[in-house]
Amino acid sequence: MADKKSRPRTNSRIDSRTDSRAAEAREAEPPARALAVRKRVDPAMLESPAQDWGLDLDAAPAHNGEFEQLVHRILEIIGEDPKREGLKKTPQRVANSLTWLTRGYDMDVRDVVGDAVFSETHSSMVMVRDIELYSLCEHHMLPFFGRAHIAYIPDGKIVGLSKLPRIVDMFARRLQVQERLTEQIAEAVQEVLEPKGVGVVIEAMHLCMMMRGVQKQNSQTVTSAVRGIFRNDARTREEFLSLAYGRNSLHR
Ligand SMILES: [Zn+2]
């Protein structure tokens, strides 16, 4: 499929096709908004750079006593000595980094997108490729990482292109399975823009498979989610998938 079409040259590709089947493509899909709200983090800190959260090797400014005790206990259980010098600040650092890596629970898609939705008559496919993605698998709490490609066909509204990576981050910074992550991103774009259709592809490598030797190092998981015309119209779907699996893709 990847060879059928010419491939995009840039990360942000705007394609030239239009489609008139908006009405029938508009499906009644239930909004999948089950965004849990946790009140354990000061929202003002959500935008802080990683080093403010103790992700660098030295500083570890925030404290969560209970969390740190648990990490301390994990160190004992795996046979370490939490008192040795290199591990002294580890409970604090782990607590901080895990808090930061799961900060997406405290975010809502409307906050992330803000007022960056604009009226626009453009009705061709808009695609942002190769959005870097880092998440944690919910089965092992180990990282999975890769790229997301998001496309939509507007129906009167477009979104600032920089907001799509932020939507990816919002859902990726939670414990996830790749399949659900893909669906949630598609659903969020659908909800915010009510476009004629949405397509999301994620290609990722999972450390829980790679490090534990369950599968070999190069195995990737590819997931896709489509809404609206991307689901109903084979031509649109095929164009999207061929763009998604284009030149810079991890998937070859
Ligand atoms: Zn896993």
Walk me through the structure.
The chain has helices at residues 22-25, 65-77, 90-101, 109-113, 163-172, 178-193, 207-210, 229-232, 234-244; strands at 12-14, 117-119, 126-137, 143-153, 157-159, 175-176, 197-206, 221-228. By secondary structure, the chain is of the alpha+beta class. The chain folds into two domains: 12-31 and 114-244, GTP Cyclohydrolase I, domain 2, CATH 3.30.1130.10; 47-103, Orthogonal Bundle (GTP Cyclohydrolase I, Chain A, domain 1). Strands 1, 3, 4, 6, 7 and 8 form a six-stranded mixed sheet that branches. A two-stranded antiparallel sheet has the order 2-5. The termini are close together. The model is unreliable at 1-41 (pLDDT under 50). The structure holds zinc ion. The site of zinc ion has 6 residues, from loops. Zinc ion (ZN) is lined by residues 137, 139-140, 142, 206, 208.
Task: Please give a handful of descriptors for the protein shown.
252 residues; alpha+beta; GTP Cyclohydrolase I, domain 2; GTP Cyclohydrolase I, Chain A, domain 1; two-stranded antiparallel sheet; 9 helices; 8 strands; 31% helix; elongated; binds zinc ion
Task: Please outline the helices and strands.
Elements: E1 12-14, H1 22-25, H2 65-77, H3 90-101, H4 109-113, E2 117-119, E3 126-137, E4 143-153, E5 157-159, H5 163-172, E6 175-176, H6 178-193, E7 197-206, H7 207-210, E8 221-228, H8 229-232, H9 234-244
Parallel strand pairs: 3-6
Antiparallel strand pairs: 1-3, 2-5, 3-4, 4-7, 7-8
Helix pairs in contact: 2-3, 5-6
The structure holds zinc ion (ZN).
